[in-house]
């Protein structure tokens, strides 16, 4: 295997089939059944991909037809995705958290003729939407489904569609795949819609291959990828594969590297899955890091004075390293750093399996303090940056360049980045989408075709390069708060600092065209429960929110944050939300970003009242 391969593959399926030929009967995809991990070999996966591809064509689906894929992370997700592409069709991943209305939008907007769904539970809202979406003609269940009465829609079983003559199927697929170019659409991924209805991003094969090439070079040159294939990387797939970040970084990057992929059982079993599978690489969103950080700190707190002392010293040493401590300071810190490396850090690393090369954060901004924490605990943290419209990875921190937790690293190989006059980050290269599905107006807005910035993707993010060529993002262009004096304030920075406090679970700050910043806070449930127990109060969030002492405790947390903020950034007043921001109440996207417009619509009067008190 060579890194140069990525630049020459005509499409994603060709890359997969090449890797399958190389690895043969070695394990590829892992899932837990009956309490035991079971693997599917590269050869077995390739056979199923080719058989399913031929079955899809036999249903009468034509080149370019869209197939919606709804499933939790599992081996069949990967097989279905590759089979759809191998059939010359286009994958349309959909979130498992979608409501009937969400599914209906994706089905109708994409014009999908077929749907693949994993089980009866996920099929329930989807099937109702399918009855209303005229184009849908076929529904394929990975597991048996209850068949509804419909003259228009045919039901098909996964097992039947993945059976047959593998030799014939492979020959047919090979001939078809040879004609699929890098510029052809591989998938339409719908953005999570922080500001309105999701738009379908048309990602072509070359866009994802460009990402695999760029990220592959980072893994090879900075983390020690074994190109011979003797020692394979191990990924633990946890984030939704319907999200572009996991789709490219957690599926196609592992395929390109010839890695094994384990599919996690869910958030509640993630910690045990990490210890069982011992991954070498993990692709994760910042919110999970924040949760893991809080859990680790609480566990260490319960272990007595020495572990707490060592953690405090580790964090102090880490902060000095990040701040560019001089040689004398490093010499002074060296003995304690050596002791921590032999005592505390091995225990922390063991909780992550003991062989983790790097945790890669993406999908949303990572608070630098969280990154510094994991770095101080001896775990390599790489923060990446991107968006669905760009493959989705644009840049990533690299150990060889130097890790700076307040940056997202230099652009990947093959990616051009420049900063516009107003500070907006612009991107150009094969990774940039060809456009939004059936939305020319938004496509031209994102990628102008005239003027000095023609052909550059306008990311909507504000940032600049540091002295080492690393991108530093300051905020979202559309989210930037401009107060009544014209000062620019970054809401994401303040929100990140607030949610690092143990008392605060979630936060949204506001203050556009206003004299000062205010916040809407969701108290941390675990902290609130402990507070209520200590005060002899019943744990009821609504009742606690009315208690002056409870609000005073939250005020103390806000005041701690304010000490590190400038005058214009300080949160002067705050209100409490009625419930957490969640996907179900549409106040958070499936990729764990808050939907500001939804929250403002619900709590607008409560926020406005903070300027009258």
What does the model show?
- The protein is α/β, with parallel strands linked by helices and 613 residues long.
- The chain folds into 3 domains: 276 residues, Rossmann fold, CATH 3.40.50.980; 186 residues, Luciferase, Domain 3 (Luciferase, domain 3, Roll), CATH 2.30.38.10; 129 residues, ANL, C-terminal domain (GMP Synthetase, Chain A, domain 3, 2-Layer Sandwich).
- The strands form 7 sheets. A 5-stranded parallel β-sheet has the order 4-3-5-6-7, with helices on both faces.
- Strand 10, helix 10 and strand 11 form a beta-alpha-beta unit.
- It starts with a helix and ends with a helix.
CATH architecture of the largest domain: 3-Layer(aba) Sandwich
* CATH class call of the largest domain: Alpha Beta
Major pleated sheet: 5 strands, parallel
> How much of the residues is beta strand, in percent?
15-25%
* Percent helix: 40-55%
Q: Which value, in Å, is the CA radius of gyration? A: 25 Å
Overall morphology: globular
- Look at the helices and sheets and give the structural class: alpha/beta
Strand order of the largest sheet: 4-3-5-6-7
According to DSSP, the number of beta strands is 25
* Helix segment tally: 22
Number of domains: 3
Distance between the termini: 66 Å
* Model regions low in confidence, pLDDT < 50 over at least 5 residues: none
The pLDDT mean sits at 91
- Topology-level CATH name of the largest domain: Rossmann fold
């Amino acid at each position: 295997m060579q890194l140069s391969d990525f630049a020459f593959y005509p499409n994603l399926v060709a890359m997969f089939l090449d890797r399958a030929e190389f690895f043969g009967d070695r394990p590829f995809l892992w899932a837990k059944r009956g309490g035991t991990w079971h693997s599917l070999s590269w050869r077995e996966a390739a056979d199923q991909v080719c058989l399913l591809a031929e079955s899809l064509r036999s249903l009468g689906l034509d080149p370019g037809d869209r197939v919606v894929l709804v499933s939790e992370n599992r081996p069949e997700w990967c097989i279905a995705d590759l089979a759809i592409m191998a059939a010359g069709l286009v994958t349309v991943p959909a979130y498992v958290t979608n409501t009937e209305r969400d599914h209906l939008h994706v089905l109708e907007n994409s014009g999908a003729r077929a749907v693949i769904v994993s089980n009866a539970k996920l099929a329930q809202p989807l099937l109702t939407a399918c009855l209303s979406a005229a184009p849908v003609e076929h529904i394929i269940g990975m597991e048996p489904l209850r068949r509804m009465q419909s003259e228009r829609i045919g039901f098909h079983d996964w097992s039947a569609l993945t059976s047959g003559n593998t030799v014939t199927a492979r020959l047919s697929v090979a001939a078809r795949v040879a004609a699929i170019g890098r510029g052809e659409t591989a998938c339409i991924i719908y953005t999570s819609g922080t500001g309105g209805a999701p738009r379908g991003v048309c990602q072509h094969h070359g866009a994802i291959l460009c990402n695999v090439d760029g990220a592959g070079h980072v893994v090879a040159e900075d983390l020690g990828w074994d190109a011979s294939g003797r020692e394979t990387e191990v990924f633990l797939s946890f984030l939704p594969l319907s999200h572009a970040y996991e789709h490219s970084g957690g599926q196609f990057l592992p395929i390109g590297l010839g890695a094994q992929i384990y599919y996690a059982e869910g958030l509640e079993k993630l910690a045990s899955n990490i210890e069982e599978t011992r991954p070498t690489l993990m692709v994760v969103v910042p919110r999970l890091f924040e949760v893991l950080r809080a859990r680790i700190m609480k566990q260490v707190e319960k272990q007595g004075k020495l572990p707490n002392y060592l953690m405090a010293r580790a964090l102090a040493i880490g902060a000095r390293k990040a701040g560019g401590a001089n040689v004398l300071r490093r010499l002074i810190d060296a003995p304690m750093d050596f002791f921590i490396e032999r005592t505390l850090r091995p225990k922390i690393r063991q909780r992550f399996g003991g062989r983790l090369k790097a945790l890669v954060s993406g999908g949303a901004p990572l608070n630098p303090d969280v990154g510094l924490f994991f770095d101080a605990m001896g775990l390599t943290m790489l923060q990446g940056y991107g968006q669905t419209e760009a493959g989705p990875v644009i840049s990533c921190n690299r150990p060889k360049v130097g890790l700076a937790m307040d940056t997202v690293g230099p652009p990947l190989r093959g990616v051009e980045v420049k900063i516009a006059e107003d500070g907006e980050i612009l991107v150009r290269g094969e990774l940039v989408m060809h456009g939004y599905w059936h939305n020319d107006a938004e496509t031209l807005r994102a990628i102008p075709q005239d003027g000095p910035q023609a052909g550059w993707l306008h990311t909507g993010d504000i940032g600049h390069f540091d002295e080492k060529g690393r991108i530093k993002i300051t905020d979202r262009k559309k989210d930037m708060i401009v107060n009544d004096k014209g000062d620019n304030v970054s809401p994401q920075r303040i929100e990140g600092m607030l949610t690092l406090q143990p008392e605060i679970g979630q936060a949204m700050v506001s203050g556009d065209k206003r004299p000062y910043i205010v916040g809407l806070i969701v108290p941390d449930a675990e902290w609130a429960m402990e507070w209520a127990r200590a005060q002899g109060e019943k744990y009821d969030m609504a009742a606690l929110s009315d208690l002056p002492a409870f609000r005073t405790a939250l005020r103390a947390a806000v005041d701690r944050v304010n000490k590190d903020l400038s005058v214009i950034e300080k949160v002067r007043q705050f209100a409490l939300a009625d419930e957490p921001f969640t996907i179900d109440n549409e106040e958070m996207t499936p990729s764990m970003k808050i939907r500001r417009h939804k929250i403002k619509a619900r709590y607008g009067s409560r926020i406005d009242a903070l300027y009258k008190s």
